Amino acid sequence: MESRETFRYQKDNKIRNIIVTIVVIALIIGTAYVIYSNFFSNPLKQNVEVEAGSKLDIKDFIDTSKYKVTVKKGLTDQQARTVGNHTITLNVKGKDYDATVKVVDTTKPVIKGVKKWHVDVNSKNDFKKGVSIEDNANGKTTLKVNTKKLNMKKEGTYKITYTAKDASGNTATKTTKVQVSDFAKIAKQKIIYLTFDDGPSYNTPKILKILKKYNATGTFFVTGQWPEYFKYITAAHKQGCYIAAHSYTHNFNIYRSEKAYFDDLNKIEEVIKKYTGKYSQDLRFPGGSSNTVSRHYATGIMKKLCKEVEKRGYVYVDWNIDSTDASGNNVPVAKLIANGTSTYSKHLCLLMHDTGAKKTTVKALPKIIEYYKKHGYKFETLENSPFVYHQRINN
Ligand SMILES: [Zn+2]
């Protein structure tokens, strides 16, 4: 009895050992396979983090100097902008491999179309109008505007702040000015906005001296033509003049495309920021918005630019009275004075130029200022002007 039981026990034990051995072998093979397929077979780096909206770089997944790699299935534009895991397939030496891409969003949204406001006392305004958010990722964005500091009942300059938030919680803020004025009162006043294009130049300090002498002020639409005089931008700004954008190169070939125009504009904006501490929100197109010279570069470009600059929060300013100092160098002083004082409107925006060659403009300026003083005009800059001077667009 005893030996039979022992035999049976040994038999059971043997079967169990075989099963255990099989399971262990299977586990070893399985583990080896997983290790092999993950670390040896698939040469692609996994879980690579990519910022939403950016392009994939194959080099982040595999050393392309060692392998011949082609993209079998990349991210669609939609996937590239969607936070989360996505799978791509790369072909390495003729074989396809998958890799997981982690799209993350750490970039702030961009608030567009923020402009300065000039509004009438007690008026109702939608300060979100024209303001939009651009984000690198898909998902809901929100825009809020904080107007707590704004008092619509009282004339003054106030600040309002926009806050944009994207789906990943990245936030951006942008602040702008709201000038509250009594429009009825302004309409009764006589105001002249002296404007000087194309500087800073050799003549800028002379112009500033004259403005100071008469306790007058003006707006300089500056260029980057003579960097050696950039310091006068700071001087003009400190004296209370307004620095606005004209063009960096002042070459009309900036009208060949929107991109060319804005590349040039951004360059002069950086100069303005550097020398005044802030970007300008006003600009004057070289040749004015009514120029026809741009036709040589691109048909319809001025119509497009006028719309686009406003979308980007700019006010573009032309003029309603011209000293005609652009018609040549050394235009006689008497002619400049006559032209510069030839209109009887209550609100004038006078075009003059600030370049080294316009010596007669400097000579005519005191007489022009004296004329307007005598006739009761206030001198102001375009920074807070409620008036917009636009000419007819011809291209
Ligand atoms: Zn100009």
Mass-distribution shape? elongated
In whole angstroms, how far apart are the ends? 114 Å
**What is the tally of helical segments?**
9
**What structural category characterises the helix and strand content?**
alpha/beta
Q: Biggest sheet, open or closed, and with what strands and sense? A: 6 strands, parallel
Keywords:
395 residues, alpha/beta, Immunoglobulin-like, TIM Barrel, 3 domains, 4-stranded mixed β-sheet, 9 helices, 31% helix, binds zinc ion
In words, what does this structure look like?
This protein has 395 residues and is α/β, with parallel strands linked by helices. It has three domains: 48-104; 110-183, Immunoglobulins (Immunoglobulin-like, Sandwich), CATH 2.60.40; 189-384, TIM Barrel. Helices cover 31% and strands 25% of the residues. The chain contains nine helices and 18 strands. It has helices at residues 2-41, 77-80, 183-188, 204-213, 231-238, 258-276, 301-311, 333-340, 359-374; strands at 48-51, 69-73, 84-92, 95-104, 110-112, 117-120, 132-134, 142-146, 156-165, 171-181, 191-197, 218-223, 242-247, 282-283, 315-316, 321-322, 347-353, 378-379. Helix 8 (333-340) packs parallel to helix 9. It starts with a helix and ends in a 16-residue tail after the last strand. 27% of the residues are buried. Bound molecules: zinc ion. Residues 197-198, 246, 250, 286 line the site of zinc ion (ZN).
